[in-house]
């Protein structure tokens, strides 16, 4: 029994360390550990490998655990930490600590040359990373959208001169910011179009296409078996019995042998290589430090140009050609979208005709490809109609029906359309979209309308001097000869906003007293809220430190500063600038402390690289921890 328990503990510690807690608890309850201790005549042994100490492998007691699980080899603990990825004991929760062992020839202080060499190496690494990430940002946020915008503009120009000068226009600095923002919009449209195309293909491939495509993709039915007449030979008419079963077993054995052969040819290194080369977001965008992202940028630019050429340039010119053949001319600000829409209609009609011709000629592959293209164009047109045209028509219909309510005429709408066509269309589309999706909500809201004057304590939204931005946001800066007028409700609103920001930053920061207090208050909830705990551990520290931050600068500016500064203008300037000045000092002090800590880490890193020879596990000192607990209890 003891040997079996030892084997289970050893295997568990190596393969599944999280199960070790349950096994040791069971051993404690059944008294198995006591029996093993007695069998070993009181000798100490490792909790994992169950072997005793030796001259080259001493035993350590690095945590609070006692009894049969007190001792452990350093190699066993390091192996367990590597598998479990934990630095604390699963039983007692104590963190393991290691003491560094340095070379005997290590100087007391590192030479200046080594420190400067490490500092230069660190700065060079930081500059290299900065240059790499700058190149990544320029590639994805500059080159890709700029190329998309200027390629789009070049393809829709009326002459060949922009096409010839396209390589020079791409690197031009003229209208750079505007072209980058426009290119981001073009790239976003291309990306969503590509995602929609892939999604539509998956839907069609998995049985979501139209019926006529499903009928085309049905497999051919197998030929029917024709029953043959029985012969006069009884052996031929026999039903295969055991011999047939034996032959089937032989075939099965041969198949298993083939599988065994395949397993013999299986190489796990291929799987590791495939996992190492797996494409991730960091590798795709270039955030892993490699230059492979340049190839991805090239493919994105190429696919973006191809999408613009196929899904924008060709439909537009097909619609333009069809309008010219029909004797129609498209003018005005909406000539481009209407021409492209007409081109998509013509492309859909042409694809339908070609699909019918391929069906007559029994060209199976061409018929399938043309059918898929027709479905893509049809879905695109229906999406434009349902998402764009119908809400736009509803918005215009609501506007025309409500002209008398706003004392407006058709001439007013016509003049607004000529002045800002795209803005007016967007407003009507937005109103129509709201009407389509929230009609029921509007009905409920209209039933709850109250007479004017009931909500007297709220601001009048129809007041021409009313500005919601100015009501909520206090001016960031006023002249020195003026004083800001603050209201209590403004302080409360901004305080709520700042409190949420501070709580979010506290929860994202390191583990300290305020974070633990906020986490406990969040876990308790409103029903289990401890008012004494909230006042003592949350409200009191905040009020104390915020009160000191407000009172100390004010007291210094109005009591100590007048003793040194006599000019009223300078005193006023000092009183108004004391808070940002102290904030700047605090920020500079924080940065200085941060840089000192980083320099200490760099110093330790240089020392460990040059002189560290190993690490030694530190034993748990019960007396020292008892003294620490007693001192903490005495201070509380």
Describe this protein with a few key phrases.
636 residues, mainly alpha, Herpes Virus-1, Znf_RING-CH, zinc ion binding, 24 helices, membrane, two-stranded antiparallel ribbon, disordered N terminus, metal-binding
Percentage of residues in helical conformation: 55-70%
Number of strands: 4
Going across the major beta sheet, what is the strand order?
A: 1-2
Give start-end ranges of low-pLDDT stretches. 1-6, 8-17, 26-41, 239-266, 271-276, 454-458, 466-474
Helix count from the secondary structure assignment: 24
Radius of gyration: 39 Å
Structural class: mainly alpha
Terminus-to-terminus distance:
49 Å
SSE layout and pairing:
Blueprint: H1 2-15, H2 20-30, H3 32-39, E1 59-60, E2 72-73, H4 74-84, E3 98-102, H5 112-155, H6 161-164, H7 166-170, H8 176-208, H9 211-216, H10 242-264, H11 268-276, H12 281-285, H13 293-325, H14 335-360, H15 364-401, H16 410-419, H17 421-437, H18 439-447, H19 468-472, H20 488-508, H21 513-524, H22 531-564, H23 568-611, E4 612-617, H24 622-635
Antiparallel strand pairs: 1-2, 3-4
Helix pairs in contact: 5-8, 5-13, 13-14, 14-15, 15-17, 16-17, 21-22, 22-23
């Amino acid at each position: 029994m003891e040997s079996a328990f030892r084997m289970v503990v050893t295997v568990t510690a190596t393969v599944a360390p999280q199960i070790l807690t349950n096994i040791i608890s069971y051993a404690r309850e059944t008294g198995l550990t006591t029996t093993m201790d007695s069998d070993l005549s009181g000798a100490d042994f490792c909790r994992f490998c169950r072997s005793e100490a030796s001259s080259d492998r001493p035993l350590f007691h690095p945590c609070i655990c006692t009894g049969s699980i007190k001792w452990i080899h350093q190699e066993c603990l390091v192996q367990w930490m590597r598998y479990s990825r934990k630095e604390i004991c699963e039983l007692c929760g104590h963190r393991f600590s290691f003491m560094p062992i340095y070379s005997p020839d290590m100087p007391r202080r590192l030479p200046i040359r080594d420190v400067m060499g490490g500092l230069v190496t660190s700065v060079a690494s930081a500059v290299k990373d900065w240059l790499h990430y700058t190149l990544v940002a320029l590639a994805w946020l500059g080159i890709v959208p700029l190329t998309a915008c200027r390629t789009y503009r070049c393809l829709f120009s009326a002459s060949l001169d922009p096409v010839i000068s396209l390589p020079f226009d791409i690197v031009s600095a003229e209208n750079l910011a505007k072209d980058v923002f426009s290119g981001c919009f073009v790239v976003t449209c291309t990306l969503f179009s590509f995602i929609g195309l892939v999604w539509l293909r998956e839907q069609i491939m998995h049985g979501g296409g139209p019926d006529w495509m499903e009928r085309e993709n049905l497999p051919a039915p197998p030929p029917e078996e024709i029953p043959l007449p029985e012969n006069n030979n009884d052996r031929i008419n026999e039903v295969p019995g055991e011999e047939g079963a034996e032959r089937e077993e032989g075939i099965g054995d041969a198949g298993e042998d083939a599988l065994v052969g395949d397993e013999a040819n299986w190489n796990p290194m291929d799987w590791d290589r495939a996992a190492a080369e797996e494409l991730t977001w960091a590798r795709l965008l270039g955030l892993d430090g490699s230059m492979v992202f340049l190839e991805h940028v090239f493919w994105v630019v190429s696919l973006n140009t191809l999408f613009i050429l196929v899904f924008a340039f060709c439909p537009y010119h097909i619609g333009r050609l069809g309008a010219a053949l029909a004797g129609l001319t498209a003018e005005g600000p909406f000539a481009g979208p209407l021409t492209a829409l007409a081109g998509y209609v013509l492309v859909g009609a042409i694809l339908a005709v070609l699909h019918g011709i391929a069906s007559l000629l029994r060209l199976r592959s061409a018929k399938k490809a043309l059918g898929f293209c027709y479905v893509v164009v049809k879905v695109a047109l229906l999406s434009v109609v349902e998402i764009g045209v119908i809400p736009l028509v509803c918005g215009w219909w609501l506007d025309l029906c409500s002209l008398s309510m706003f004392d407006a005429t058709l001439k007013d709408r016509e003049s607004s359309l000529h002045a800002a066509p795209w803005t007016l269309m967007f407003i009507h589309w937005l109103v129509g979209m709201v009407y389509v999706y929230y009609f029921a909500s509007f009905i409920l809201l209209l039933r709850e309308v109250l007479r004017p004057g009931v909500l007297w304590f709220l601001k009048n939204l129809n007041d021409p001097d009313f500005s919601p931005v100015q009501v909520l946001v206090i001016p960031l800066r006023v002249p020195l000869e003026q004083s800001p007028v603050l209201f209590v409700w403004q302080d409360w609103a901004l305080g709520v906003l700042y409190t949420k920001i501070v709580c979010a930053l506290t929860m994202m920061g390191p583990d300290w007293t305020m974070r633990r207090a906020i986490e406990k208050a969040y876990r308790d909830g409103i029903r289990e809220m401890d008012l004494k705990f909230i006042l003592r551990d949350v409200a009191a520290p905040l009020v104390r430190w915020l009160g000191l931050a407000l009172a100390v600068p004010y007291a210094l500016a109005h009591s100590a500063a007048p003793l040194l500064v006599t000019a009223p203008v300078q005193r006023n300037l000092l009183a108004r600038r004391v808070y940002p000045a102290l904030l700047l000092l605090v920020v500079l002090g924080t940065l200085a402390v941060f840089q000192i800590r980083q320099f200490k880490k760099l110093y330790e890193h240089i020392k460990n690289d040059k002189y560290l020879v190993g690490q030694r596990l530190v034993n748990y000192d019960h007396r020292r921890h008892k003294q620490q607990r007693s001192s903490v209890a005495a201070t509380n």
